[in-house]
Amino acid sequence: MTLGRAVRARIAEPLMRATASVALPAARTSIGADAFDAGFRYEALLRRELDRCERLLGRSTGHRSVRDRRRRAELEHRRRLAPGRPAAGPGIPEVFWHGPDRVGDGRPVVVLLNGWTASGLVWPTALVDRLTERHDVVRIDNRGTGYSRTAPTPFTIARMADDVVDVLDAIGAPAATLVGLSMGGMIAQEVAIRHPASVERLVLCGTRPAAPAGFAPGDAVLADVMSTPARGEPLRDFVERSWSNVVAPEFASARPEAMDELVDRIVERPTPRAGVFAQLRAISIWHGSDRLRLVRAPTMVIHGRDDPLIPVGNGMRLAQLIPGARYVELPGVGHIVPFEATDAVGDAVVGAP
């Protein structure tokens, strides 16, 4: 890292933390939420203009910006992972997905939407294999993660919801069952509100409603999940240490193979700090819980009783706000419900025997 980049990183990190800490309470008021929405739109406009200027400069000088080089590298990764799928262009989703380029005739579609900092890779193999027996399974890399790291910023939960519909259109799926964990559950709710015809069912795990109905964990928990590796600490050790703090207390020792798989998936394609904070900003300004009355899709809310990151009361409140929602509370389960209670999530999608 150059000196200039190091200085910018030291300035940007506390600035982004401060922004998020202000946004979360401000978004609970309509005036604050509207102000942040307007700010995001203005910032997005400025970034688009900056990108356009950088491209023009690159064409005229032959010099490519760091952002452009990263974008090109990511598109090459996409081409290797999905050789028959266009990586970019008009009508191509800005996000990458793991799964079929086109869905099969008559097979139901399941879209897996992961949470803050986690890509579409971070789903248990046992769950994906079980669902694939009867469904076409699509795992989306949300903006900022996986192979969608260079998708345009800033973005909102609503923009990520639109990404889901863009992917459904691209694969030829008129509708799907959406399974969302944490931030992924927020995206799934937003899809159901904005694009009701695209949603057959909702399975919402370890998530919360939008402001003002949802509520956050304590400052100590947030500080823990936003921490960075200690000096000299290997990435894998850091990931295991930090994610162990959001599962149930006995999970890591009782299910070491599941914990190892979780860590393996995260380390395979870690989320950069820029993506972490871009997603946190989107979560922080998400608002409009009154709109949940518009959800018409059959909904199951699954929440771990020992969830330290999104306290269990959020799941209860969410089930109250969505008409006809069914609520399932799992004792001895923390925040990472698909890994901690894989069978329960699978049963919610395919139906328990």
Layout of strands and helices, then pairs:
Layout: H1 3-26, H2 30-61, H3 66-81, E1 97-98, E2 109-113, H4 125-132, E3 136-140, H5 157-171, E4 176-181, H6 183-194, E5 199-205, H7 219-225, H8 235-243, H9 251-254, H10 256-268, H11 273-284, E6 299-304, H12 312-321, E7 326-330, H13 337-340, H14 342-350
Parallel strand pairs: 2-3, 2-4, 4-5, 5-6, 6-7
Antiparallel strand pairs: 1-3
3D architecture notes:
The protein has 353 residues and is of the alpha/beta class. The chain has one domain (3-350): Rossmann fold (3-Layer(aba) Sandwich), CATH 3.40.50. It has helices at 3-26, 30-61, 66-81, 125-132, 157-171, 183-194, 219-225, 235-243, 251-254, 256-268, 273-284, 312-321, 337-340, 342-350, and strands spanning 97-98, 109-113, 136-140, 176-181, 199-205, 299-304, 326-330. Strands 1-3-2-4-5-6-7 form a seven-stranded mixed β-sheet, sandwiched between helices. The model is unreliable at 1-9 (pLDDT under 50).
Considering the chains and any ligands shown, give keywords for the structure.
353 residues, alpha/beta, Rossmann fold, seven-stranded mixed beta sheet, 7 strands
Task: Give a brief outline of the structure.
By secondary structure, the protein is an alpha/beta fold. It has helices at residues 3-26, 30-61, 66-81, 125-132, 157-171, 183-194, 219-225, 235-243, 251-254, 256-268, 273-284, 312-321, 337-340, 342-350, and strands spanning 97-98, 109-113, 136-140, 176-181, 199-205, 299-304, 326-330.
